[in-house]
Amino acid sequence: MNASVSPIVFPNLAVILESATLAELDRALVNLSASTLLVAQQRNKHILAARTNQDILEIIFSVIIDWQGSAGLRSVSQVCREWRVVALAAPLLWRQALSLSVNPNWMFEMLRRTMHVPLTIRISHHDIHRDMVYANLLSIADQFWRFETLEIDAPRPYICEFFGFVPFDSDEAPRLRILSLSGKHWQGLLDDDEVLPDELLALSAPNLEHLALENFPFDWDVLKFGLAHSIRLSVLHICYPGESDAPHTLSISELLATLKSIIWLRELKLHNVLKVIGENLLTESVTPTTALPALRTLDLQANIQFCSGFLNGVEAPALVELDVECNSTNEAGDTPLFTTSAFMIGISRIAPHDPYNIFSVLHQKGKLWISLRSNRTGAFCRILVPEVNDGPTLERTLRKLADMPSVHSTERLEIGFSKDAHRKVIGEVWAYLFERLNKVSSLDLGTYPVPRILQILYCNAKGALEAQKQGKEVSVLLPSLETIAIATSLTLCVLVDMIAELRETVGAPIDRHVTLRKMDTYQAARERITVWLEGSFTGAQAEGEGESVGESEDSED
C-alpha cells in the first residue's frame, strides 16, 4: 500500500458524492481501495490457513509439490502474504521442487532459492530425452559439490559428457550420499570417452551410502581407494549386461579383498563383473574366507565358476536374501557334475540359515530353478542353474538341498519337473529328500506329476502298514503331510486316494478323493494302478507301466 494514502471510512458517503469534484472522487477511490485491502488483510489474519504453524504449512506445501511440482509451489506462494513468506524462505521445498524439465531461467531461479542445501538430482531413461533436461543438467554440473543424491539412467556418452563439465577442483564430495549411474540402455560400442573419469572414482565421499554403477567401464583400483572406501558405504551395485561386457580381469580373491574393506556393506549386487581368466576359479575356495558381517542381501549373476568361487570364499552370517543366477556352466571346461557340486556347496554354506517354510524346485528346458522362502522371517533364496540336463547333476543338487538344515522346516513343497527330468532322477533321491522334510503339510507336484513320486509314497505307506502289523517301528515319509496337489487326472487322483487310504491306517492321514469312488471308472482305474504298482516291484516293468499310468490323461507342457 502507498504510504501517503490514509485509508478512511466516509460516514455519509452518498451526501459527499453528490457534491464531490472529479479530483475528490478519484481521491475517494484510492482511499476506498486502500481501506478494502487493509480490511482484507486484517480479516485474513482470522483465517485458520493464515494462522497455521510454519512447519505445518511446509508439510502441506511438500505434498502439493509431490502432486504438481514446481508449479504447485509457485501457486501457493501467491495465496497470501503469510504463505508467500513461508514458501520463499524454505530452501528444502525448493530443493524438492527443483526440476530440469522447465525453462532454464525458472530452473536457475529455483536453484537460487535452494540456498546452500544439498541437492537431489534424479533423471530416468525417459527424462533424459525430454526438452531442456540434458541441457539443464550440463548447466548445473558446477553444482556437483552440493549433490546429496545423483541418479542418472542415460546412454553412456551423455553421463560421461556431464562429468566432463564437473569441475573436480577438490578431491572430496562431502555431501554425496547416493550415486547411481546406469548406462544399461546403451548398446553402442565402447569408446575411450565412455569410461568414467578417475577424478570421480577417486573422490573422498565420507557420507556415501549407496553406490551403483551399471554398464560402465572404470578403473577398479581407483574405485577401491576412492568412492568404495567410504566408511558409510552399505549398498554396492556393479552390473554389466553380459560376461563379455565386463571390463575387469581381476581375480575373485582381489574382488573379495576390496569388499572386505567395506565393513558396513549390507547389500551387494554383482552381475557379470569379472571376465573368466586362465586360473581355475574353483581353486580359490581353499583360501581363507572373507567375512562380510553386515551383509543382508546378495545378488549374483555370472558363470557358475565365478559363483562357486565367490560363494565358497565369503562368510555372511547376517544374510537374509540370496539371489544367484548362473548364466553358463562350463566356461572352464569342468564337468557339469563337478561345477554344480562345488556351486551347491557354496549355496549351502552361505544361504540364509533361518528356517524356510516354502521350498520350490522347478526344471524346465534344461534350467533348474530353486526357491526357498520363509513367510515368518523374510529369509529368501533363489537359485538358477542352466544346462542341468544329466541325472547325476540333478540328483547331487537335490541331495545337497536335502542336507541343508534350514530346509528341514519346509511346510509347503512344490516340485515342477518335466517328464524327461523325472526320468533322470531315481526314486532313492526323492526318498532321501522326503526323509528330511518331516514338517511338510502340502505337496504340489506341478502340471506334470509323473507317478514315480506317488509310487514312492505308496510303497512307503504300504511298508509302514506291514511294519505296523508285525509290531515293528513305523516310519512314514512326510509324516505331517495333509494335502497332495496334482494336475486334473482320474488315474493320478485315484492313486492319491489309495495312498491316503494306506496312510490313514498308520496314523498319517491326508486328504482323500472320496467323490471319485462314486464314479463308474473308479474301480477299473484302481485295479489298473494296482497292477502297475505290484508289477513295479520286479523293476523291469516299472518304466513302461509307470509311463502308461502317467500318460493316460496327462501330457508334458
Poorly predicted spans: 278-286, 537-547, 550-557
Give the overall average pLDDT: 83
As a whole number of angstroms, the C-alpha radius of gyration is: 36 Å
Query: Strand count, sense and closure of the main sheet?
Result: 14 strands, mixed
Q: Shape, please?
A: elongated
Q: Whole-Å distance between the termini? A: 82 Å
Percent in helix: 25-40%
Q: What structural class is derived from the secondary structure elements?
A: alpha/beta
Number of helices: 21
> How would you write the strand order of the largest sheet?
1-2-3-4-5-6-8-10-13-12-11-14-15-16
Bin the strand percentage.
5-15%
Strand and helix layout:
Layout: H1 13-19, H2 22-44, H3 54-68, H4 70-76, H5 81-88, H6 91-97, H7 104-113, E1 119-123, H8 133-139, E2 147-153, H9 156-165, E3 178-182, H10 198-201, E4 210-214, H11 220-225, E5 235-239, H12 252-260, E6 267-271, E7 290-291, E8 297-302, H13 304-311, E9 314-315, E10 321-326, H14 336-350, E11 358-364, E12 367-373, E13 380-385, H15 391-402, E14 412-417, H16 419-424, H17 427-434, E15 442-444, H18 451-469, E16 483-485, H19 490-505, H20 522-536, H21 542-551
Helix pairs in contact: 3-4, 8-9, 13-14, 14-15, 15-17, 18-19, 19-20, 20-21
Describe this structure in words.
The protein contains 21 helices and 16 strands. The protein has a 14-stranded mixed β-sheet with strand order 1-2-3-4-5-6-8-10-13-12-11-14-15-16. The chain has helices spanning 13-19, 22-44, 54-68, 70-76, 81-88, 91-97, 104-113, 133-139, 156-165, 198-201, 220-225, 252-260, 304-311, 336-350, 391-402, 419-424, 427-434, 451-469, 490-505, 522-536, 542-551; strands spanning 119-123, 147-153, 178-182, 210-214, 235-239, 267-271, 290-291, 297-302, 314-315, 321-326, 358-364, 367-373, 380-385, 412-417, 442-444, 483-485. It is α/β, with parallel strands linked by helices.
